[in-house]
Each structure stands twice: as structure tokens, then as C-alpha cells.
Amino acid sequence: MEVERSRKRRRYSSEFKAQILAECDVPGASVAKVAMSHGIHANIPHGWRKLARQGEVAINVAQRDFVLVAVAPEVRVRDERIEVELRRSALTMKVTWPMSAAADLRGAVAPIIRRVEIALREREQAEKVTRSRHQAA
């Protein structure tokens, strides 16, 4: 036996939507807490906010021209450096890099390493050719 349930969509007035969105816009406010305090699911105001941003719904929410934001002062870490030393055969490559740019190290060093490896292979091949010529003579 099946029970058929009919669900009706709840309709909210523009004033109610504006009130909820204004409360959500208060610095530090949680959309979920605001929604729960009004007895609605958090997805509802999130949807209204999305529609308002896209301009698809006209909700009278006071627009702010200025929002106060607290910015933490820049924290300076000791001038730490990353030191990398690569050795291959008689060649040693040393790289000193600032810790603040650690994410860029791989991108900067990888092409250099590739070029050095190519140059070393070419040099090794040239040395083999030279040795084989000397041994043949």
C-alpha cells in the first residue's frame, strides 16, 4: 500500500528574504545559524544569496559601499633559506633559495637540472667516443 504525500512549497515574502539576507551579511554571522533561528533550512538562504548575486531575484537588501575588514600584520619569518646540493660525476650544483618562495623552487630548478643532465650525457658520450678512438689507435 502506497501513501501519497503532497508537499507544498513554502513561499516567503520579499521582506522576510531581505531580513534573512541582511542578518546573514552581518560580519561573523553564520548562514546556517540565521536560517535555523528562523526555522528554515540553511540551503534556502544560500539559494537566495546566489540568486541575489546573479541578479535573478530582486530582494531589497541594503547594499554596503564599505566593509570594515581586519587585516593581520605581515609576519616576517627569519630569513631562512633552502639549500640544495646536487652532485653528478665531477659536477656539483648548489642552489640557495628563500624559504618564502619554496613553492617556486621546483619550477625554477627543474629546467636547469634537465639542461645539466643533457649536458652531462653529451659530455659522457663524447668521452666514450674519445676513449674508444684512443683504444682503437
Structural class: mainly alpha
User: Could you name the ranges where pLDDT drops below 50 across 5 or more consecutive residues?
Assistant: none
Strand content: 5-15%
The rounded distance between the terminal residues' Cα atoms is: 100 Å
Mind describing the biggest β-sheet?
2 strands, antiparallel
What's the domain count? Answer: 2
CA-atom Rg in angstroms: 33 Å
Helix content: 40-55%
Mean pLDDT comes to: 78
Number of helices: 4
Strand order of the largest sheet: 1-2
* Strand element count: 2
The backbone outline, from C-alpha atoms, is elongated
The SSE order reads HHHEEH
Question: Which terms would index this structure?
Answer:
elongated; two-stranded antiparallel sheet; 137 residues
